[in-house]
Amino acid sequence: MNLFTDIHAVVLAALGQMQAEGALPEGLDFANVTVEPPRDPLHGDMATNAAMVLAKAAKAKPRDIAEKLVEKLTADDRITSAEVAGPGFINLRLAPAVWQGLVAAVLNGGTKFGRSNLGAGKKVNVEYVSANPTGPLHVGHTRGAVFGDALASLLDFAGYNVTREYYINDGGAQVDVLARSVYLRYLEAHGQEVAFEDGTYPGEYLIEVGANLKDKVGDAFVDQPEDVWLTEVREFATEAMMDLIREDLKMLGVEMDVFYSEKSLYGTGRIEGAIQDLTDKGLIYRGTLEPPKGKLPEDWEPREQTLFKSTDYGDDVDRPIKKSDGAWTYFAPDIAYHYDKVQRGFDLLIDVFGADHGGYVKRMKAAVSALSGGKVPVDIKLCQLVKLFKNGEPFKMSKRAGTFIMLRDVVEQVGPDVTRFVMLTRKNDAPLDFDFDKVLEQSKDNPVFYVQYAHARVASVLRKAAEAGIEADDATLLAADHTKLDHEAELNLLKKIAEWPRLVEIAARTNEPHRIAFYLYELASDLHGLWNRGNENTSLRFIQDDDSATSQAKIALARSTAVVIAAGLGILGVTPAEELR
User: Is residue 495 domain-shared with residue 528, that is, in the same domain?
Assistant: First the structure.
């Protein structure tokens, strides 16, 4: 049930009647007609721009169209008033029964209330985390993991067929560095003194890996040249790191559908196949790039290279896919990987990258557009940095020094639920401060606590109802007389609940799961506001002494609020709290 969709249908029907009567010309495009909450709630419950967007095509004044449209709209029993505002906007007020009817819709739907068929089963690939397999996940990866996972859940809730995917970057030079670092720990496990030179990973997390390698191969690699052990140690170390990463993701409640290895692209013809596809389209050529202004990018060479005509698809410059020595650039396997996604039949690709990948966006969009013939869009979401604070002092990370803050450090201190919610309290492209003291604070200023407290309060109402002998199962609450919910504060809470299905679709269209966290905070605020008003006005309390019928209606409202909160928290990957201590 989406009230905004329902009233939008009423507006379109009224416009159709006006066309039939000759008050509007035939052939008008209604695609831009909207029904949404007014900017100021005092102006009404909903507003439509119909007269404004149709005036030019209809060759009429907006107010003239609006005044005729108002007459049609007020004929509907659900609309108690329709008023023309400003140059031609129409503000609508709905009958209390419309809002009261939401309770049954929520209780019938449960946490599926608000689900949408917006996605119509389209296949979406959401690639996120995709950290180099050179160590456990750090706090920067945490934000991308939470954002990507919540976005995948949001799209699933909105009717898309979602695949969660992790791209294992195990084909580059950084994996050789990992192997050399593990080899040093292996020698250390044999009692040798070792030195970690610049360019190796000295993190303590590799001590156990080195010891495990010793258990597996004994002293077979001790003092042997690199060509003897590099390949085997690289495979052993990569798998050990992926085991660590999978453990980290599990701690955070993240489960991937696919782990895709970059290494699988090499020596299999997949890179060559993708480049051949672009060649066949006339998009690969030999040329020399002009030196860019300012800082030189890593993939620029002042000599002839094999280039991809990415400028044909909106990029700033053409991009090298093969170096002058014949080796692939790092962009080539990425092209092949996305070509594979296109061939797997996805209708939409979403890549979640760190902030340092900003320069990568245009080239990747160009490649996907070229590979798919413009049929498969790709949305690349960049997650900005997370700054950690504790005791007023910032935590600093340095992966190469082995002193970075790991994902598990954060989760072990505050738990997965708090970690996930806090990571979604800012839009992905805005910096985020994570203060260990504040995220555990029990106050209105802490959105995690405030939302969980609202759900826990409803749970306490149900427990008190049971103690008072008031039946409050969902079936009983569904049958309650919801017309008793007629106070302004109760109706306002229902109006906020009514926004949920619409909010889900907006968040899914924009790929912005933080909107869910913001909405939940607003919904929780309305519930807490109603609760607090009950301290002075006893008629607003959810349990009314010696009046089971009224109590059940009010409990039904509280229960409906908790259902929506639970659905929203489910999208965010957070477990609703039954009680807080």
Answer: yes
pLDDT of 18 > 50? The answer is yes
CA-closest candidate to residue 198, choices 436, 374, 420, 401 = 401
**Cβ distance 381 to 353 under 8 Å?**
yes
Contact (Cβ atoms closer than 8 angstroms) between residue 485 and residue 554: yes
Phi, psi of 486 (to 5 degrees): -120, 0
Per-residue model confidence as pLDDT tens digits over 529-539: 999 999 999 99
What CA–CA distance (Å, rounded) separates 342 from 349?
8
Same structural domain for residues 527 and 467? yes
Domains of the chain: total: 4
Looking up residue 35, the CATH number of its domain turns out to be: 3.30.1360.70
Residue 125: name the closest of 246, 258, 33, 241 by CA.
258
Q: What is the mean pLDDT of residues 495-513?
A: 97
The 3-state secondary structure of 336-381 reads HHHHHHHHCCCCEEEEEEEHHHHHHHHHHHHHHHHHHCCCCCEEEE
Q: Which pLDDT value is given to residue 65? A: 96
pLDDT tens per residue across span 408-442: 989 998 999 999 999 999 999 999 999 988 899 88
Strand-strand pairing, 161-168 and 258-261: parallel
| Mean pLDDT calculated for residue range 6-25 | 96
pTM of the model: 0.93
Tokens of 108: 């019938």
Boundary of a domain, candidates 94, 118, 136: 94
Domain assignment present for residue 260? The answer is no
Distances (CA, A) of 68 to 4, 23, 75, 468, 487: 21, 8, 12, 54, 32
Q: Contact, 411 vs 252, CB < 8 A? A: yes
